[in-house]
Amino acid sequence: MTPRVPPSRPASRTLPSRESYAPVARVVPSRSAREVAESVLDPELPVLTLADLGVLRDVTEHDDRVVVTITPTYSGCPALDEMRRDLRASLRDAGYPDVEVRTVLAPAWTTDWISDAGRRTLAEHGIAPPARIGPRPAGPVPLNLTPPPSRVHCPHCGSADTVELSRFAATACKALRRCESCREPFEHVKEL
Ligand SMILES: [Zn+2]
């Protein structure tokens, strides 16, 4: 009597054999993995791509595997899981089914990493970009609980006469402000 054998599976990932996998209609990539990863939108600031935001550290391709290294905007940021999911989904749809997303926490991301293009995009969407803070000493980053002294310009009229209405807007990374000149409320990406 022949013993019953469970359906065979690939014995080892180190010995890939295309024949051992069920045939899947594979999308032939038309863009590099880096281009795809760079174009993924940030879950918290969906007008910005991950490239604009400066969170993409590295994108490498080893055979069929893509390794994306990111530095999340805030440690413990709830958007991190979403960012990972979006990266995997976008790369899979673009023809890169095997994706590993690694996170690197040091050096810590700061709002200074948001590109000039990203700052323009924020302003175009009525969101005041963060002021540039400049290099900071290494070591623990002090947590600022008081609003920074920098002036925040209204993204609608450019006036610097703006007041903070709420430290937290729709997402923790933004504050809600109002312009005293044009009276329009707007969101401000807080400096970090
Ligand atoms: Zn204004």
TrEMBL record:
<feature type="domain" description="MIP18 family-like">
    <location>
        <begin position="38"/>
        <end position="101"/>
    </location>
</feature>
<dbReference type="Pfam" id="PF01883">
    <property type="entry name" value="FeS_assembly_P"/>
</dbReference>
<dbReference type="InterPro" id="IPR052339">
    <property type="entry name" value="Fe-S_Maturation_MIP18"/>
</dbReference>
<dbReference type="InterPro" id="IPR011883">
    <property type="entry name" value="PaaD-like"/>
</dbReference>
<dbReference type="InterPro" id="IPR056572">
    <property type="entry name" value="Zn_ribbon_PaaD"/>
</dbReference>
<dbReference type="InterPro" id="IPR002744">
    <property type="entry name" value="MIP18-like"/>
</dbReference>
<feature type="region of interest" description="Disordered">
    <location>
        <begin position="1"/>
        <end position="26"/>
    </location>
</feature>
<dbReference type="Pfam" id="PF23451">
    <property type="entry name" value="Zn_ribbon_PaaD"/>
</dbReference>
<feature type="domain" description="PaaD zinc beta ribbon">
    <location>
        <begin position="147"/>
        <end position="190"/>
    </location>
</feature>
<dbReference type="InterPro" id="IPR034904">
    <property type="entry name" value="FSCA_dom_sf"/>
</dbReference>
<protein>
    <submittedName>
        <fullName>Phenylacetate-CoA oxygenase subunit PaaJ</fullName>
    </submittedName>
</protein>
